[in-house]
């Protein structure tokens, strides 16, 4: 299930990178999309770390990394809130929700196996 989360974060990062290219005239939107892409890259890294932690049976560290991965999309959403003129794209909201749900499942699994 962690690999599903990694896939989601990677796909969202790619989506955001493509949106940066298409927002050529809107420097503010490009800035926020770049910040979001960075957050999803960090979520990806956190999930990769959790995968390694799970392999080593370090459940407390795995839990911490998954919690971090679930929270990175909030920073992206908050970046949009800082600029009232920017609208949080529905596609991004759906991806955020998906990653959070995946992380919730992973956290439940970690709880069940030994945290």
Automatic annotation (TrEMBL):
<keyword id="KW-0732">Signal</keyword>
<feature type="domain" description="Pectinesterase inhibitor">
    <location>
        <begin position="1"/>
        <end position="109"/>
    </location>
</feature>
<dbReference type="GO" id="GO:0004857">
    <property type="term" value="F:enzyme inhibitor activity"/>
</dbReference>
<dbReference type="InterPro" id="IPR035513">
    <property type="entry name" value="Invertase/methylesterase_inhib"/>
</dbReference>
<protein>
    <recommendedName>
        <fullName>Pectinesterase inhibitor domain-containing protein</fullName>
    </recommendedName>
</protein>
<comment type="similarity">
    <text>Belongs to the PMEI family.</text>
</comment>
<dbReference type="Pfam" id="PF04043">
    <property type="entry name" value="PMEI"/>
</dbReference>
<keyword id="KW-1015">Disulfide bond</keyword>
<dbReference type="InterPro" id="IPR006501">
    <property type="entry name" value="Pectinesterase_inhib_dom"/>
</dbReference>
């Amino acid at each position: 299930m962690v690999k599903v989360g990694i896939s989601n974060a990677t796909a969202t990062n790619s989506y955001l990178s493509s949106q940066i290219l298409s927002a050529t005239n809107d420097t503010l939107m490009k800035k926020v999309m770049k910040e979001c892409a960075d957050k999803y890259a960090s979520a990806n890294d956190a999930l990769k770390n959790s995968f390694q932690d799970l392999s080593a049976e370090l459940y407390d560290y795995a839990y911490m990394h998954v919690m971090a991965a679930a929270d990175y999309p909030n920073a992206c959403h908050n970046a949009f809130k800082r600029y009232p003129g920017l609208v949080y794209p529905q596609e991004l909201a759906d991806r955020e929700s998906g990653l959070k749900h995946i992380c919730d499942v992973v956290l439940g699994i970690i709880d069940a196996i030994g945290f």
